[in-house]
Predict the 3D structure of the following.
Amino acid sequence: MTAIAALVCAWLVYAYAFGHGGSRPLGWQDLTGQLGPAEFPRPAGRVFGSAEELRRYLIAAMPGRTPKLPGIDFRRREAVLLATGPRSSTGYAVEVESVREQRGRVVVHVRERTPSLGDPVAARVTYPYRLITVPRRNKPVELIWEGRP
């Protein structure tokens, strides 16, 4: 029984190392400006494989004020939406720290920037977000938020 447990553990370590190893940077594009002003009422971290899927999500998230979709070649790229939900001032932002391809997945590291006490900000509700695209790799895309969303 101990040999079987050791074999299972060895296989899990190998599968994790193989699936998550071989990390290299992956080029991505920021389309936030093309989507324009948007108000995502809840935090979101979603990957979209088609224009229809993204359009349906935007209609549901912002009924009656859906922005125009940017041109995305979904045969070659996937869209990734990263939104924090409402924030209390203009000092908040969503920043993509890195996009890396590993053997078994694509990993997007995201950080929410928050204002410091001395930062010049306006007190009003904002909805920080980023819409990026990554090359389609037929691998799962994993979103890792550093800090809080």
Notes: The chain has three helices and eight strands. The radius of gyration is 19 Å. The first helix runs from residue 2 to 20.
